[in-house]
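pasting for ref
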Amino acid sequence: MQAYYQRMRPDITPSPEKQQLMLMGTGFHELFGSAVSSEEYLEQFVEMDGIVGRIDVYEDHPLELKTSGRLPEDLAYQNTAYIDQLGMYCAMANDSAGSIVVYRRAEYGRDPDLRRFTLEFKDLGRIADEMRRGRDELQQALDAKDPSRLPQCVWWNRRCDYQSVCGCSVASQGNQIVAAGAVEVREDVEMNERLLAALGASKGQRAAKLILNDLVFPRRAVVGIPTSTSDEGDTVPEPNLRELQRGGFQLALNDAIRYGEPGAYRGIPVSLGQMKAIVRAHHDMPCIFGSTGTRSMIERDRL
């Protein structure tokens, strides 16, 4: 149902708050994947019978990363959509095993955390059949411009953007792609610890050279708050959960600004003695963008 309205009602857009969460999730995925795996295993594309997908990390088995406001106590009961998505990826890759990492965002004074679950799917053939059935149902609805036969979306009554126009209130529940009892789920506590260790592996390291931010915040530099620089000179936070969340949002927002208006946003190489850096410019005017933890926008007279 959501896929139907995404195509038929492009005029309906997420709220700024929801777009922020989406940007945060996009950037977090990129930084998390780079921290725990090598580039060759990130974002692997798969295809089956006209259905395409993108696996977050595919090293030994498909791994999907999910960001959420809470950690599930029972993944099979609370997050069936997560299981359906991973099941489809496993069917497309013809691999019965896969993993889901659920990251709990740091918000409302709550610390970030994550859990990794290992899943074993018992009937990849049935999953593939359900995928093809769902593909055909969606295509028929799009061709007829009639979504009345589509099943209720899992986002119904959960702040879905299309709730005011969709028919989910009277739609049927539909079938799960992965049948109950057709998957074995267990939490991988050992892998949880290994992931956390990998994310904190560079803790305490500093860039060997001074960067522009060190001149702006010299005490921070002396105390040794760990930072490094990207190939383009941007400051990059150390890979721990809290910094990955904040840095992920900044990375995705930066990409949106950089590529949203082609040619308008660029980097200008600068040097001061032995110090070299990149100054960001929008329409050739030096600029800084930042995200803040305040609950309201900083007004001009207080900037």
